[in-house]
Specification:
This protein is α+β, with helices and mostly antiparallel strands. Helices cover 44% and strands 15% of the residues. The strands form 2 sheets. Strands 1-7-2-5-8-9 form a 6-stranded antiparallel beta sheet. It has a 3-stranded antiparallel beta sheet with strand order 4-3-6, with no helix packed on it. A hairpin with a 2-residue loop joins strand 3 and strand 4. It starts with 16 loop residues before the first strand and ends with a helix.
Length: 292
């Protein structure tokens, strides 16, 4: 399959970031990806469909999302939006803007964690959006570039404090591994990643890390905030979504190749988790992708 449109933002080695503010009534830019990190704010966009990886959601009046995943497909599409004047502020910056050695400092710890989570795309809560709204509102018009940079750092910090921020794409779709997690959890996740199409039993996974099933079940949920069964389903769905997007393999073949043993059950779970049937999900990406 050809690769999805790869955008090249107009950022030079001398730029900290690229900021553009637009007022529009239509969202026409196709699903795309790029290496640069992106913070995208949409105001008065009720009904717009936001696509980040295999997450497709209809947004409300305000939407703020950070994407740091290199190659993670994303787009904001017209959807059911009828607003005549939608405001969009897009901020793109290099992944080297804040050096890893700087991000490892105590003062930047929360920002580093946020950037790691945003490899899957992160949607921020309304509380966080309102907390940074005044900063975003005038950012594109600031003439003092140093002050603009300081304001950007303030935005990063405030957003990194958002306890209600949530990731969007599934890790298996985005091919992202967790950062600095428990060795036991990492070992089990790696096993699941390599064997998701097989029958995975709690007893076997617990034995893999030398724990009894009941203790391991609690341990896994404590460290991942998800039950083991839900995590396995998410991994299978993410791989299924990737196959739907990147291949022409039949839906029934994808169903069984990803560890589901019943096509109707696969269709039901996929729709409940993704909001679309597998067929409609594939059609949406095929329609809105531009291949190069």
């Amino acid at each position: 399959m050809a690769k999805v449109l790869r955008e090249t933002p107009p950022i030079t080695d001398k730029d900290c970031f690229y900021i553009v503010e637009r007022h529009k009534s239509e969202f026409l830019y196709p699903i795309h990806s790029h290496q640069e990190f992106e913070l995208n704010f949409v105001e008065h966009g009720t009904g717009v469909h936001r696509v980040v990886g295999d997450s497709i959601e209809e947004i409300g009046a305000y939407d703020l999302v950070l994407v740091t995943g290199n190659g993670l497909e994303h787009a904001w599409q017209q959807g059911n939006c009828m607003e005549p004047d939608v405001r969009e502020i897009t901020i793109q910056f290099s992944d080297s803007l804040l050096d890893e050695r700087l991000l490892d400092r105590t003062q930047f710890a929360s920002i580093r964690k946020m950037f790691q989570k945003a490899k899957l795309g992160v949607a921020f809560s309304m509380t966080a959006i309102m907390r940074v709204y005044n900063y975003l509102d005038g950012l594109a018009r600031m003439e003092d570039r140093f002050e603009q940079f300081l304001v950007m750092l303030k935005i990063f910090y405030e957003l990194s404090q958002d306890k209600d921020a949530r990731t969007l794409a599934s890790s298996s779709f985005a091919d992202v591994r967790a950062d600095r997690e428990s060795r036991r959890i990492a070992k089990v996740k790696e096993y699941i990643s390599n064997h998701y199409a097989e029958d995975l039993r709690l007893e076997d996974l617990a034995a893999l890390v030398g724990m009894v099933p009941s203790a391991f079940s609690r341990f896994f949920k404590q460290h991942t905030t998800r039950t083991l069964s839900n995590y396995i389903i998410d991994i299978r769905l993410g791989n299924a979504a990737r196959l739907l997007v990147d291949t022409t393999t039949s839906i029934s073949e994808i169903c069984y190749a990803c560890g589901f043993n019943n096509l109707s059950n696969f269709n039901r779970i996929f729709k409940s988790r993704r909001g679309y049937t597998p067929r409609d999900f594939r059609a949406l990406f095929t329609k809105n992708r531009v291949y190069v």
